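Troubleshooting: if your tokenizer reports a length mismatch, compare against these two reference records.
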Amino acid sequence: MKAAYYHTQGRARDVLTVGEVAEPVPAAGEVRVRIFVSGLNPSDIKARTGFSATMAYPRIIPHQDGAGVIDCVGKGVSAQRIGQRVWVYEAQQGGPNGTAAESVVVPAHKAVELPADAGMAVGACLGIAALTAHRCLLADGSIRGKRVLVHGGAGAVGSAAILLAKWAGAWVATTVSTAQQAAVARAAGADLVIDRHRQRTADVLMAATGAQGVERIVDVDLSANLATNLACSARDAVVSAYALRQATDTVSVPMLEAMKKGIVLRFVYIYSVPQADKLLAIRDITQCLSAGAYAPEIGRIFSLDRIVDAHEAMESSSVIGKILIEVRGEG
């Protein structure tokens, strides 16, 4: 089969290759998915560049997320799943082979049925982004009727958080840096869009909430936003951080201010979230999809042969919205 892969970590143009590899065969408890669309995430870039770990395998086919059709099942998996349209998450976690290929084998629970009305491109936008956003928003209970701040609402996780928060019944504010990002955030359903370069986020939020503040914060850059978060938080607010710039990043918390408000800091690394919690997230994501409430912004779609360009586009931040790799057309 055709796949993209690398044998050593480094720059995309130096290490990524597209070629022929052996098609995988599912073992017991696994399914094989013919991939139509592969989703690119920042964690895929970090894995390729050695951001936080060296290569655990001599060859890696990258990408955790994707969507396709099950065409083969291993022992113990119902044959009725053959032909099922699915979205895949964490395909390359714990193994060498991800979704940047014509086929991938994953444990059966990592291939989730895709609702009939959802296209393959939407399915490939789920995975890491949707699961991370759900964890940030809902790990601490329902957000119905609550006020949420999403930093970076035009990013993959940020826009997923807006979509899921609105579906879950929350009022949502978000920060952006450009007019184009603002348009993406509004399309996702944000109630309040704040230009973080031209406005003081905490002041705008306190005015908009009648000085009550927000009860959930989804943060892409905690070290930069901590003072703002503390200033606009409601009593017992939960601040969830899911990203960092360097593997050695640290944050210093003004404890007295945080203690007075009873602030909870939650750090989210989706790969270590218990599977039972992921299954709850998948249930909610499926309901959101089925309700037609999950419409992610797709920035660009590249062919598999242009995977280097896709990786470089993500690294340069030149694309707003999800970057996808079309492995095969839907017909």
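Reference record two:
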Amino acid sequence: MINNKKIVVVLPAYNAEKTLQKTFEEIPFEIIDDTIITDDFSNDNTIEIAKKLGIKHIIAHNKNKGYGANQKSCYKKAFELKADIIVMLHPDYQYSPKLIPSMCDLVANNSFDVVLGSRILGKGALQGGMPLYKYISNRVLTFIQNILMNQKLSEYHTGYRCFDAKILEKIDFENNSDDFVFDNEFLAQCCYLKARIGEISCPANYFEEASSINFKRSITYGFGVLRVSFSYFIHKNKLWSFSLFKNL
């Protein structure tokens, strides 16, 4: 805990057998109260390794439902555990678990409602192995999103996030996408709620075993991001109503 707030780390996993242990062992358990792993029907030994590591809360999907669906299972379980602060960390070791205390401290001390681990702050993205096309598309999409959503974030596409559970409870994320654009929908909803969003610099760590979507899926994701951003702009300016923001 920090400031008597229960902290839960959620690990949405898919074929993470080669990186799960390394990720898990670097989690700062001196402040973490619980960890949850959801396995999206991996075809490797992710679940067996999770059991070996002693992860108490393991959720196994009986079919591959998608990245967004994996997160939904994580957050629902975190609510059941009555988490005050929820950290979403990919178990593929792309992001350093050692930043968790800094991220949680900013939320626990009421500085921010959401804290993002940004690979773009500083010069770590390309140095850490981010493919050039992903870096360029990240920067272009973020530029467009900041204009349409009236924000000043360095990136919207990080998979390393810390939330005040009170913000998550206001969002009907069950109706969000089950695919990769879930992350962007979720963050857009946080923006719509006027959540205080902070960022800390997070080194990128791209390597062979780390998960990554291919070029084709990246294109689909990019168009999904634009859809979300334009929907936000149109809804915010009362030009049309979108279900993504209707009940916020």
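Descriptive notes for reference record two:
- The longest helix spans residues 215-236.
- Residues 148 and 233 are 5 Å apart (CA to CA).
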